[in-house]
Amino acid sequence: MSILLFVLGLALGSFINVLVFRLNTGETIARGRSRCLSCLEQLRWYDLIPLLSYTIIWGRCRYCKTQLSVQYPLVELFAACIVVSVGFTVSPLDMPLRFLVISGFFLTLLAASVYDLRHLIIPDQLSLTLLFFAILFEGIQFSSVSGLGIAYDLLAGVGAFLFFGGLWFVSNGAWMGFGDAKLAFSLGIFLGYPEIIIAIVLAFWLGAGWGIMLLLRRVATRKTEIPFGPFLALGTFITFLMHVLPGFAAYYSYVTVI
Q1: What is the pLDDT, as a whole number, of residue 212?
Q2: Residues 78/113, Cβ–Cβ less than 8 Å
Q3: I need a surface site. Which of 50, 57, 133, 144 has the fewest CB within 10 A?
């Protein structure tokens, strides 16, 4: 099952790459053959095998020998890890709908993160898709969670939105983008309270560590824009795993107390 989920994740990661490169460019996602972005040569089926094709051709276009972006294999690998991780926490055979919704949420979050890294913005299409999955997840939870619990989740989303929206408003967009506020709204609904607070704290620590590393390596300055969406996504995924995996129970309790 893990192997099947890994292969499925690789395929979905390949689709995410297409989505990120074509979104808001006027190109459709459903139609059009994939092609090299340098020589515009249409790619054959054997050029599109996730992870394997990139490895065989040593990360270069088969036709013009241009170095391909490392985004291709990394996104495919991350997507595969997401699907396998969700499969460990939610059985795709016993709870298929829950598995599909949670996987869809985190895969969309991956797409939003990659797009944010490339363009320093989170498209509304992806923000709305995340919100859709978050609300759908709440609907699935409705049968096992009280109405008060769902109200807390909605309030967690509103609180996260107001926090990041406040940072955006006070700084006039210098500290935080408004896309991060919209992203946090969906994350808050999905995680609930107090998990969203843990995810935000982790995101700030991860972002600070990454920024310090870039400064030490002199590849960035204090004025360099660093997208915060990927750190929110990573903090959310780590919090999710800490909450649902038994092996992380002790760490989750410790972080919650802090």
Answers
A1: 87
A2: no
A3: 144
- Angle between the N-to-C axes of helices 147-171 and 195-216, in degrees from 0 to 180, rounded to the nearest 10: 30
What helix, strand, coil percent values describe the chain, rounded to 5? 70, 0, 30
The Cα–Cα gap between 203 and 199 comes to: 6
Percentage of the chain modeled with pLDDT above 70: 86
Q: Work out the number of other CB atoms within 10 angstroms of the CB of residue 250.
A: 10
Residue 154: exposed, middle, or buried by beta-carbon count in 10 A (0-12, 13-18, 19+)?
middle
Neighbours of 42 (CB within 10 A): 11
Q: Residue 47 corresponds to which tokens in the numbers above?
A: 């050029």
Residue recorded with tokens 């808001």: 24
Phi, psi of 124 (to 5 degrees): -60, -30
List, in sequence order, the alpha helices (H) in 60-146.
71-89, 96-119, 124-141
SS3 for 120? coil
Q: How many Cβ atoms are within 10 Å of 133's Cβ, its own excluded?
A: 23
145, 192 contact by CB (below 8 A): no
CB within 8 A of 123, min separation 6: which ones? 23, 24, 112, 115
Dist CA 107 CA 78 (whole Å): 9
∠ CA 23-227-243, rounded to 5°: 95
pLDDT at position 45, please?
A: 67
Average pLDDT over residues 119-147: 83
Please provide the size of the chain in residues.
258
pLDDT at 148: 63
**Residues 68-90 pLDDT 10s:** 778 888 999 999 999 999 988 88
Cα 155 from Cα 185, distance rounded (Å): 9
